[in-house]
Design brief:
This protein is 14% helix and 25% strand. The protein is an alpha+beta fold.
Length: 71
């Protein structure tokens, strides 16, 4: 199963919990970017490796991550 992950970047507080639970190690913090709150937001590198497990969305304390399952 493939997935697509999106983040509400401006609400991300950079807690990095999502990066710690991704089994594929594709969720990372954007070191060059800052959001409206002044935090480095999370993003996905190599989206094609996403397995749509939604671990990142489940652990996010602010519910800013959406995972879609693609066929």
């Amino acid at each position: 199963m493939k997935g697509k992950v999106t983040f509400d970047r401006d609400r991300c507080k950079g807690c990095e919990l999502c990066t710690s639970v991704c089994p594929m190690h594709i969720v990372v913090m954007e070191p060059e970017a800052l959001n409206k709150k002044g935090y480095h937001p999370a993003t996905v590198v190599e989206m094609e490796k996403c397995i749509a497990c939604a671990s990142c969305a489940k652990i996010c304390p602010d519910s800013i991550i959406t995972v879609e399952r693609l066929d």
